[in-house]
Amino acid sequence: MTADEIRGTIHGTAPVPLSVLDLVTVGAGRTATDALRTSVDLAKLTESRGFHRYWVAEHHSMPGVASSSPAVILAHLAAHTTRIRLGSGGVMLPNHAPLVIAEQFGTLEAMAPGRVDLGLGRAPGTDGATAAALRRTNTLNEGADDFPEQLVELTRFLDDDFPDGHPYRRIHAVPGPIQSTSPGGVQSPHRPPIWLLGSSGFSARLAATLGLPFAFAHHFSAQNTVPALDLYRESFRPSAVLKEPYALIGVSALATDDEKEARRQVLAASLNMVRLRTGRPGLVPTPEEAEAYDFSPMERDFITSWNANVIHGSVDEVRAGLDDLHKRTGADELMLTSHAHSAELRLRSYELIADAYGLPAV
Questions:
Q1: What is the pLDDT of residues 317-349, one digit of tens each?
Q2: What is the pLDDT of residues 267-324, one digit of tens each?
Q3: What's the 3-state SS for the chain?
């Protein structure tokens, strides 16, 4: 694993490398099969236009989000792509045994050598009851508090370097390095680079201390973006992985040929978020349903605040918004996520943004 497997390449006139975050959203009247087909189409499109990486998020018990199993989805995307980096944005480590994650991502690395990222978060990616079902425990804080220890364990499984005397010394994640030490064994030189994900200062500081790349969830925690990135850069310690800090930010962005349609789609996504935040998660509603919905004053205040950080409108508006965000944050990479009921408009948004920056058609 080298810094070259982490740092992206700038194409066209984009200020930094551009990447994709996919929640595999399911709109009203659509199926999970439809959403997953859209993900394949989007991965192929963005690969052909020079986007650097394509990450899938882990969420649970949300009808409008079909990304409960990132490793499964990434294996499917690996079969339909050849160059774009694929990864998790992220796997919620407290939900899983570290050995299972090492095995899953070792398998993905074997499927797509040299282009797999392992992004890790410590949030549950769902509500407390669902998290308890995933973890088979009611002491949910324990998982988050143990995150640094879980991270060390996962890293040792990936590198197969538990010290002598450790109870896991004779346990090996396969596919993995143990295969190279077996008679006649040959092992890939690649190991999925670990990224730490966060929406506050905790993961920023931990990533900095360990010299790891950092991904910040600007798309739902914008008020913390600059403080977290500053903390990451100020606290960064060079490591065998990175000599200098490298941070990307997730950005909600939707560009359309008709800016009015962008507003309609964003309103639908806002209604979906209102329902999620009030314990009523569902499929992403249509723009027509959102326009007919009677928002309460409190709900309108929420969506006004929420949409202040959604870059949307014409492609010129979106490009200007992305350029300004980069200037304000100094992010090393922008990872774009689009939220809309229409799969066609999501695909079109990435195409428009690629055209706006003159990204090559490969």
A1: 999 999 999 999 999 999 999 999 999 999 999
A2: 999 999 999 989 999 999 999 999 999 999 999 999 999 999 999 999 999 999 999 9
A3: CCHHHCCCCCCCCCCCCEEEEECCECECCCCHHHHHHHHHHHHHHHHHCCCCEEEECCCCCCCCECCCCHHHHHHHHHCCCCCCEEEEEEEEHHHCCHHHHHHHHHHHHHHCCCCEEEEEECCCCCCHHHHHHHHCCCCHHHHHHCHHHHHHHHHHHHHCCCCCCCCCCCCCCCCCCHHHHCCCCCCCCCCCCEEEEECCHHHHHHHHHHCCCEEECCCCCHHHHHHHHHHHHHHCCCCCCCCCCCEEEEEEEEECCCHHHHHHHHHHHHHHHHHHHCCCCCCECCHHHHHHCCCCHHHHHHHHHHHCCEEEECHHHHHHHHHHHHHHHCCCEEEEECCCCCHHHHHHHHHHHHHHCCCCCC
